Each structure stands twice: as structure tokens, then as C-alpha cells.
Amino acid sequence: MGEAERFDLVVIGAGPGGYVAAVRGTQLGMKVCCVDKDAKPGGVCQNVGCIPSKALLDSSEYLHLAREHFREHGVLLSEVKLDLRAMMARKERVVRELTDNVRTLLESNGVHLLWGTARLVGATRVEVTPGAPATGPVLLDSRFILLATGSEPVALPSAPWDGIRILTSTEALSLDSVPERLGVIGAGYIGLELGSLWQRLGSTVTILEAMSRIAPPADAQVGRALERALRKQGLVFRLGTKLIEARPAEEEVKVSIESDGGREDLAFDRLLVAVGRRPLTRGLGLEDVGVAVDSRTGHVRVDAQYRTSVPGIWAVGDLIAGPMLAHKASAEGIAAVECMAGLPGEVDYDCIPSAIYTSPEVAGVGLTEEQAKERSIPYCVGTYPFSGAGRARCLGRADGFAKVLAHGRSGRILGAHILGPRASDLIAECVLAMQLGGSAEDLAGTIHGHPTLSEAVHEAAAAVRRCSIYAPRP
Q1: Which of the residues 112, 417, 448, 450 is marked catalytic?
Q2: Is 407 annotated as catalytic?
């Protein structure tokens, strides 16, 4: 191993947190190296997560519309077929184009991109085992080190992955045929999205969930409405169900469950285990240099500026506490680098949106109604159905509603939740309103175009004026 190459900042991980942080570092005058174990930068999100799943979800929705809804629009097709190979090829093309864009972004900003596996060997030193086996380890020395290695799927001892019959989300995004019977363990956003995807493509999908509701983090009213919509589409939900064991057989997966006190045996062609993700810290050498980690959750402990317990080492994204969202990681990456440079970098965690890309979509920001009640916050709530929005009717996508929560005294928006078409896009104006400290009256007084989907949000904000009789009073 030769002499260490010197940098101002070494970023470990080229996902949404890492590559954004690396670019921000160069913008602030730093000499930056970004290390990633994958030859294609972009992290889990770009390669095997957000992007490929949304590409396939969009493709599957077109197929569903062609089969189920084109006729009512007067569009008649003699035959609608699925070409799964072509669909997967398009998904790979989208992924390739976006990972190429990340590489170009890094290189055009002067970031030194290094392919290899990184390990901390000191508070200022990183050892990289290059991905190209012909070369030896590389030693990097840096004033700052930013950990942004993301997360990995949580394993279930009762359902060990084999990559063939029992799958992670990675394999579930690359199947070469449509399983006749697909089982899904977990009714969180990954299970719901991939379950919806394969149900549209022709699978009979059964989702097993230990809790009594789907999409647990979502507003409960939204979650109940989403469950009704997905059941109507054909998804089967087994809630309050405990997995006892899953074992692959020759041509199927045998699954034993416990529900309502009784045991039952099921069989599927494929089983997706989607019970969450955990911080990816294996092999980083955290314990060798003394970086403190939460023993219960596995999260790296950081302060308000994203500094770990070891001076000079910082961490962001899925490695630290909070929702595992790509845009959260990006915001934290920028904030952390700005703090390194002596600037006031920060993230407003009350204004981070989330989304579930089913159909209808779900999106939310801020407090749910349940959280407002738990915290004894006086609130008012306004809702408006998409069935009352002309644009939604024209699209034939009138399921769902928009919901706005505002403080009972000040009227300031506490949260917003949307179930309906393009909810993931519509939530942005609610995020902006909250970021600026806006009230429901501000949102209601903002002129929205007609006919648009955003009118549902406007009307929900206006409905806050007629405060719910069920809301707690000041």
C-alpha cells in the first residue's frame, strides 16, 4: 500500500446522500473523493430501489389502464399483451441513464469517484479495496469523512432468503416471469408497491402483516381508505397475522402463519420479505475507530450537525435515525457538508414528505391526526374528495381525498395527507406552505388553476375553516 492520497472530504457511499454531499463539497471549495462499492453510482435508490420500482410501477399502470379503463375512454384495443422482457429492459435502461447522469454530475464537478469497498482505519483515514481485483488497497487521508452507506433489507430468521423462491425487493424487481401466486410479508411501502406492481401484471397477491393496519406510518384515515382501494383492485390482505415459518419447496414456498389464535398453512410460487430496512454498517470498521452506534436500532449516533462520536467523522441518511427516504438523505448530506464548512446547515424534519406509489398514491407531510391527538395539540381538520375535483373526474381517477390539519388556535398547518392521483407531486405545495410557516387560510386563499388536481388540496384547506366537531378544543 502506497502513501495516502490527501483530500478535504471523503464520502463513503454514492447514493442520494453521498453524491449530493460530494458535489456540495466541491462547490464549497473542497477536494472531494466519493467511494462506492458499486461500479454504478446512485446507491440503492437508483440501482435497486426507488427508480427501478417506479419505472415498473408506471409500466404496470399503463398495462392496467389499457386492460381496464381505455374502453370507457372510447379507446378500443383488439388485444393487450404483456411483454415482461421488454418492460424489464426499459427499467434497466432508465436505471442506466440515471446512474450515468450521477457519474457525469460527480465528474463534471471535480469529484474523484473511486469504485471499491471502504473501511475506516482511523479518524482521518479510509482504506479502499478497489472493485477491480488486479489492483491493491488504496489509502485515503482526509480532514472530514462522511458516512453515507445507506441501508439493507431486514432479514427474517423464519423466512431466510434464497433469491429464487424467497426474495428481497432486489430480486422482486427482476423476475423473468409473473408468479401466479405471490406472497408478501409486510404491508409497508415496499410491500404495498411491489404487491401492486405484480398484481397489475397478473399475480394473485396476498400480503401478510403482523399489525392490524397497512401502511402503519400513514395517517390512519388515509391508510384505511388505501386498504379499501387496494382490496377492490384484487390484493388480499391478511392483517394481524404472524409468520411462523417459510420454507422453499421444489416449485413453491410453504408458509405457516398464525392468525386469530389458529395456525394455517399457505403456499406461494414466490415470497417477498419486505419487513423494513436497517443501517448498512457491516465492514465499515465503526467499532475499530470508536464510532458510537445505537445498540437497539443499529443507527449511527450523531449530533445536530451530523457529527459522530469521533471528531472528523460524520454520518447521514439511512445510517442515522429518522425515516429512510432518499430526499432526507440528500438534505442531510448538503447540511452536513455546509456544517463542515462553517455554514448553518440544517434540515427541517417537520417538513419532509413521504409517498407510497400505489394507485391511488399516498403522500403526507407533518403530523398525522393520531399524532396530534397523542400530543394533545388542539387542531382542526379539513378534507375534500377527489370525486369533487373536475380534473380527477376527467382523468377517471376520482378515488381518494386531500386532508389538511391546522393548529386550533393559530391556524398554522400541522400536516397534510393525500390519497389520490399524483399525490406525490401534489404534496409539494403543502410542504412549501409548512416550510414558510403558512396557515390553512394562506393555502385556501391561494388561487389554484381550474380544472386541476390541486384544487382538492385548496378545498381541503378551505374546509379547515369549518373545524371538525370531533377535534379537541383549546
Answers
A1: 450
A2: no
